[in-house]
Amino acid sequence: MVSIHQISLRRLCRLFALVFRHNRHCSNSSKNRSAQTWRSVVGLEIHAQIQSESKLFSGASTKYAGSTNTQVSIFDAAIPGTLPVLNRRCIEAGVRTAGALGCKISQVSKFDRKHYFYADLPTGYQITQQRHPLARDGKVKYLVYNTDNWNKYNWKTASIIQLQIEQDSGKSLHDADRNRSLIDLNRAGVGLMEIVTAPDFTDGEDASSFVRELVLILRRLETCSGKMEEGALRVDANISVHRPGEPLGVRTEIKNLNSIRSVGRAIDYEIKRQIAELESGREIVNETRSFDAQSGQTIAMRDKEKLQDYRFMPEPNLLPVFLYDSKSVPMGVDRASVIVIDNLLQGLPPAPSESYERIHKDHKISIRNCVILVNEDGLLKMFDDIIEKRDAKALTNFLITDFLGVTHARNINLLQSPVPLRHIADLFDMKTDRCISNDNISQVLELMFDFPDKTPAEIVKEKQLDNIQDTEVLRAECEKTLLKHPDVVQRWKVSQQKEKKGRQDPVIKLVNTTMTALKNRADPLVLISIFEKLLSKK
Amino acid sequence: MLSLTLKEVVHQIQQGKICAKELCEKCIARAARVKELNAFTTETHTIAKNQASASAERQATLATLPLDGVPVAVKDNFCTKGIRTTCASRMLENFVPPYNATMVEKLLSNGACLVGKTNLDEFGMGCGSIDSIYGPVRNPWKYHFISQSLTEAGLQFGGKEPHAMTYSQLKARGIHMSAQSRSKVLRQTRETETMTADGHCGDDWYIAGGSSGGSAVAVASGVCFGALGSDTGGSVRNPASYCGVVGFKPTYGRLSRHGLIPLVNSLDVPGIFTKTVDDAAILFNHLAGHDVNDSTTVTDPFHQQDLSDISIKDLCIGIPKEYHSPGLSEEILNAWKWAADLFEKAGAKVVPVSLPHTQYSIVCYSVLCCCEVSSNMARYDGIEFGYRAENNESTEELNAASRHYGFNDVVQGRIFAGNYFLLRQNYEKYFMKAQRVRRLISEDFHKVYSKKVDILLTPTTPTEAPLYSWFSEQDNRTRTAEQDVYTQPVNMAGIPAVNVPVRLSKAGLPVSLQLIGQSFKDHDLLTVARWLEQQVQFPRLDLSYLD
Question: What is the pLDDT of residues B287-310, one digit of tens each?
């Protein structure tokens, strides 16, 4: 049925292409008009590997980057006579994810076989959930933003059509020189959640923002690592363009986008390509394309699937997956042996969009900083735990600039940080109370990671990193600086006579010199006031 | 010793009256004597001897296992670790599984000795056990053994196989390796033999039935005391009927299919061949139960149960009127009436019942079977295991060539049909409709049982064992449609059924009947079967004259 539908769409498009060409001859302004009036429609299919110890239907490990063909059970290799045994953990992960995506979770879902021959698909079929998926009809609110322009952002909601559980395939390597194919089955049979969205996106930025949000959701749930660079989450994008008021255009599918950046670039390229094709009177072919990240272009794949009939059939070796509400567990059924939806959905972490909104509203933090706080695992919790009555903007800056600066340099996962939260809060307070200069903060932080048992106060005292509070000492040092730099003093005098604007420059120069001499153990503001007093006497 | 029942053998081994090693040797010797029946694809005599030695050691310490020293055979579609498992197909001729099927594991862990893997129709697709790359299986009943005639003629075998010694003689008798198999690989061989196949005269033999013909023959000919088969549409009960042994197809979900190379997953059930119903119950007791490797096995605990004598008085036996079909022979019909009378005379209520959708079972089966076959066979692509063709031009070419040469015509035909039925535009029309019809067939049985009928009594096969010459006149599909007619609906419903041989026909061949029970009431069914068996006193085949 779908193919007939597509053919008629293609015919329609050809018709429109003709009409359009005709118009072009009549109107000189058509070129301008066309560039502005195309609408692009994008839908996504996301394959997220389920974070589980073992595969969907076998006990083999799912660890990434294992030695070739070492994580293959006899079932994964399709050895005759083997049967699938459902990994309950994968269904639970699917239920939690479906819950977080606002889906309706099916009390009964079923597995189907999807047939096609491919060397890295040992059984000749993929076990998936075509007709009765685990969940349907979800909604995800997400923030559309562009890291190049933080002022331009907006909230959108995308619809999830369905979430189904299925098997991943193996990997093929084609050795063209020696005319052979090599197959690694380590990935074959790893559990996947296929998340299908409605065609709700308009362009690359929109779609990639959604994927970013989804990755965050999955990582918070710990149902998928979201590591796109490891192939743990791959995106297929369906793209078409049409004119407003006209039916949707013929779509192409870009397969296996493996970074958020690629999602955005590939979609934007494909939209431009389709518009260019249509504007030059050609038509779009319903085909599968791949994205070459180096050239930034999409390329038509050798398309065997266009007329492929997958000959879906129910998987006869698996019982339907029955899920229960805690109230609907039938009498006599052992509760421990069944999956109870509401139990699994208890204590789901809040959606990232909720977190953005909360901290943006409650603490007036910029969207950029909200995004960083939320995206960095554990950082938002740290913020929430420390904030109390403290200044939110200052704390955010401290966490993002000072704290992340050190953890990123040291490649430390925040969730595994050895430094007690109390010490971090203390350090922030010391900074706020101007007990320690900004320039010494990172040094203190480094030492806190080296000696997690010591408080910042102890470290600062031991290593003499705290600010010198004795104003006499400071003034003496400032006077020394003035004596050493008469030229700067002279410049200050000149600036005083001319215009007030340039007044600060020489002072800052003096402060910086003094700070270095004091090994940064001073509050620059205090130094400024000392210098202002000293200079005014001259 | 080989005429004993499994129960007797178990008893005597436990008592130390029979030595496991000696018994094993006797079975191996008998296997050599009846080798021309072609019941085995692979003989595992060395393995059996080692297992028997281990049994003998346990006998010495009196710490025996329940089936210690009992020689058994397993259909060559159950995976056996380190022993090739071929499904009688070119495709798996070189396939050595890395694991044991649960059924095999249970037999071996209970002390049984595996004497060999038995012959079958390729991948279990057939009802004559003649479509095998190893050639057809022959029914031991009324069989004129060459070994016997040679001995009579004063010839000695020495250590050589009768086949090798007397191949020209075999050929002269119209016995050839692969009449029905249309595998391209075999076509050439067959063409050279067509003359003899068509021109046989008098030197015909009876087919064993199938597809588990090898297992039925192994038990009937005394090579072993129990054998495993698989029953998808009657593949255990049909050969049991023709070979005069008990063939038990338990309730779907009672025995694990893990390691059974599937024909139709939703219909396949491991089945048991033995000489008596008691023997079947013993094996069933040791084989049944939940298996974590097969999600379709039931999880409720299984309790071993010995069969006890029962009073037939409270029993209600149903006679399905639809089973009086035109193909039913006089001989079988009479035996059926006779058995019904035996029940009635013993006080049971015998009532006619109706299974109105039974007539659609065969056509429904052929759709469902082909669909699952096309899917199950998709893994045979010449890459991970099995036959790989030489063609390396591309993966597609390699797949196509491997499948073209690896499968016989019957398998290929079912794959084509199945793929057609599963096409998007056909799915509703064929597969879905067949599923609905299947439910109706299944409901027929449940309706009958809900009306206080305990057991159904029916024929197993329309006739006694047919001659090979007659059977091979028609193709596999035609024969399956006529042969499976009484057995096949049972698989649709997943209920248990057992073949019980009841008497000999005028031609001296076994005449058998089928008893059909209720879901998970396997022991009740066997108890009634045992009663019938005791009444009829079927004369079992005795081939001791060959030893």
Answer: 999 999 999 999 988 999 999 888
